[in-house]
Sequence to fold (1194 residues):
Amino acid sequence: MPTYKAPIEDVKFLLNDVFHMERYGNMPGFADTSPDLVAAILEEAAKFAEEVLQPLNRSGDQEGCTRHPDGSVTTPQGFRQAYRQMIEGGWVGISVPTEYGGQGLPATMTMIVNEMLASANMAFAMYPGLTQGAIAALLHHATEEQKKTYLPKMTTGEWTGTMNLTEPHCGTDLGLLRAKAVPQADGSYRITGTKIFISAGEHDMSENIIHLVLARIEGAPEGVKGISLFIVPKFMVEADGSAGARNSLLCGSIEHKMGIHGNSTCVMNYDGATGWLLGEANKGLHAMFTMMNEARLAVGMQGLSQSEVAYQNAANYARERLQGRSISGVKAPDKPADPIIVHPDIRRVLMSIKSFNEAARALILWTALKGDVQHRSEDGNARQAAEDHVGLMTPVIKGVITDKGFDNTVMAQQVFGGHGYIGEHGMEQFVRDARIAMIYEGANGIQALDLVGRKLGRDGGRAITAFFKEVSEFVKQNSEEAMKPYVAPLGEALAQLQQATMWFMQNAPKKPDNAGAGSSDYMHLFGLVALAYMWAQMAKTAQEKLKQGANGAEERMKAKLVTGRFFMERVLPETAAHLKRITTGADTMMALPAEAF
Amino acid sequence: MPTYKAPIEDVKFLLNDVFHMERYGNMPGFADTSPDLVAAILEEAAKFAEEVLQPLNRSGDQEGCTRHPDGSVTTPQGFRQAYRQMIEGGWVGISVPTEYGGQGLPATMTMIVNEMLASANMAFAMYPGLTQGAIAALLHHATEEQKKTYLPKMTTGEWTGTMNLTEPHCGTDLGLLRAKAVPQADGSYRITGTKIFISAGEHDMSENIIHLVLARIEGAPEGVKGISLFIVPKFMVEADGSAGARNSLLCGSIEHKMGIHGNSTCVMNYDGATGWLLGEANKGLHAMFTMMNEARLAVGMQGLSQSEVAYQNAANYARERLQGRSISGVKAPDKPADPIIVHPDIRRVLMSIKSFNEAARALILWTALKGDVQHRSEDGNARQAAEDHVGLMTPVIKGVITDKGFDNTVMAQQVFGGHGYIGEHGMEQFVRDARIAMIYEGANGIQALDLVGRKLGRDGGRAITAFFKEVSEFVKQNSEEAMKPYVAPLGEALAQLQQATMWFMQNAPKKPDNAGAGSSDYMHLFGLVALAYMWAQMAKTAQEKLKQGANGAEERMKAKLVTGRFFMERVLPETAAHLKRITTGADTMMALPAEAF
Fold:
């Protein structure tokens, strides 16, 4: 059976030593977030993830969700009880403003906790995760009355949330959307249409489900400019705030998916359901993207979560499984064979994943902290710079960490040989669960286009310029001998990324396909540079801590230095191939007629 | 629902135009294999695959196999009937010598037919596939009496075969094997032990199942030098050749796997079962490897098979799915959106897979033809050279084509967005089915070690030297302008492979971990060079055909040239990163203590 241990020490290293969370102390929510409080929250969250959620992961996968003839859905055994503990722990609302019943802590803390929940049980963690996304949309776009109506119960988790975008004929291209909203005399709307792939669309864990639904108000313009966002609760909310009459919406079926079986992915039928406009009419996409952008970071984190738990299990197995002898001489003469961790090719897999995970976690936390600055700082320049950073990094984190996170689950599974292919060890579930993260909240090809087509050029390239400047300054300022193994390859990779960026500037305007043809490679090239930068910073911190006397963390700091070095030697060299591909352009790629495929 | 169309034209192009099958006409089996006969066989096999097997693929996955309390196993609905058609078509034995009831055709033909069967239904195709492996072992190692007893009914497919190696505590490291064989007065043995992951171990499609089982004769030496191979039939064979009394062996359970649900993967319990020695005592591994090596090529082909069928479905979907508009201007103004095949990032995926599949098929067929030369040629030198080639290419084909074939199914699935994650379109099944090919018949890490640790140095490097010579001569002899886009990158990649080989020669003897640390990268670097060489040859052929007037194949030949170019520009650049990784050696990789993971 698979196991999971939350990476508490690693998170503390990042928050306290690398990113110096104490420097953010002047922002709301941070002042109260002392290292001790952080540690206490991490311990509690870890316990919940390891002891309550993880044991339900495999059984939840095997049992899946069941839809009944009346449209109701039962979640796997144990999910209801675990969700009750989730509510009791107050985990849904730790970063929601206190006025709506939350704890007002940094959103970074939610991200950290959610990684643990998702590692332990991704299908389960999606229920509160979707709720948090819906809360974000309401916080930004709802009227005060709407906030008071919905937020308190969503913050506790008593009510959950969903996002309804996709229809059978339209996913990426929301301009094709058909769901209809007809205005009523009382200010409400009648919503009619079919939505598919609705995660947590119907289930038995909460008293009410607040659906956020994209639809087109009768007579609205065609395309994306005529789309509005609506609040459509499963049960109408009574004047006293309780759930009342059933709304005209129903789960039509649940999808048979490759993974995340514990989450109910629904076809939702809205049949003249009562809804209320959220934000402005015809600006629904904008409102939805508030939710979507936070969700994309969370999905990137899911990629890490599966990579992490798969890695941990592979490492355990590699230490225990006896098979073959080391080619450099017998290592366990008292045993019938050596543990497979002595074999270089097994090490290659473990080091590849480990060096990815630790940098990915750093990149996510760094960006989550910037997200807190964006929303909480009183300094307008800092807010602007943080917003630039988050906008730039969101597609990178979503696209790269889910792509590579999935690859890592596959590599981790390989460590088990045939035992990885059967259900027992849980490895094949990590692969199946991780796979969705590359698809939802905008397939990774779309992330790459968002990065290259939108984020690079925005505001005259302000965000990317700032990033280049920060990294190159770090490289310059850390040229001492000990840092060379880290900053030399980082500098080289940065130069390649800059070349690629320049190539787009020169070749995409006259032929836009040149941008599309290189977008995925560019996103991955960018991701590698960002991760390498994380490693350079972590190496710097580790060296400083070792110099100061690492207080019992010597071995962990030494391991950081080795792992970062591995990343530079073995993972980063991929950048050259990305650059080469980008600069070949679109001609060959686009040459064949459609019927030649 | 997924569809499949056998790549008949592509196979004919390879056999007739690229590899000139007619040149092999002097070998047994080839003389009768005229282009017309080949075409007829391909058409028939295609029909069987497309019309009978493919429609059972998804239902077979959903239903899976069922073990009953008495140990019997029922295959999914339709499998029995389809298998009867397989027998009637004579597909199992097309390459088996005529004296045992086969058609004596080249083994290459079996490989070609099997690709089609596996694309249509991999789980089904494994039943006859395992039988063919067992037939190979019997042909090489059985006594004449044993051959007469088993081969005729296995050749028709009335009886099927299995291979039993793995035990719960030993997979790769067969030296740890515990299954026991006790000699009996009549020359038979009593076999006792538990074998796991036995594909097609028990089912309802054939009258008898001939298990080939590795076990240790009482008193035999420890380790791999004390392992023997036994023939252990499910039903004892009577004097008249029919199946008689039940042997003492039973399917203890069937595994719950990630994929290939239509194949029954069994735990097999041998409880004093009667078996007969196959080949020499204590040389079982050698005999098993006859089977294993052919099986490894077949598994490489499975990687291609899933990549091919996944590609076809993705291409069809990309032509039909309307979503978004081309960034270079609207392409389908009469439709609400353009088909997604207009988007460069979708093209990138399709071209990547297409350019891989066509070269992989070439590499497999080229090597299959060499296999025929190895076994059928009267020229001793030719046989030797062919054996060298097959030995060298087997780990490359198995390791690279299954790794990349799996990646390709994942990429093809991505084209479908959310629709790729649900069962309906069949894409997620291709991913789950393809995954096993990276694991069984020697996990791909083992293939890489076989290549680097055994195949490179064997006979003073004769095989690799011959390969280098052949490729570099091709590069030299085809330096004309039209071939430059193909031979220039090929030459560069070859130089990198030679550098990597040299690096091992210089750095592995003094530190064997340096070989292990670079083995997987080396295998993939080798694979890229081999595939690029296939493209260079195919481009040459296509250019010649276009010059001669391609007789209606103009468009296909032009597409070959574009696709080959794409491979050179976008797939091959990976070689540099492999070389860089290899030459960093093992130090960083091996530096951490096991407990640091």
Observations:
- The longest strand of chain B covers residues 265-277.
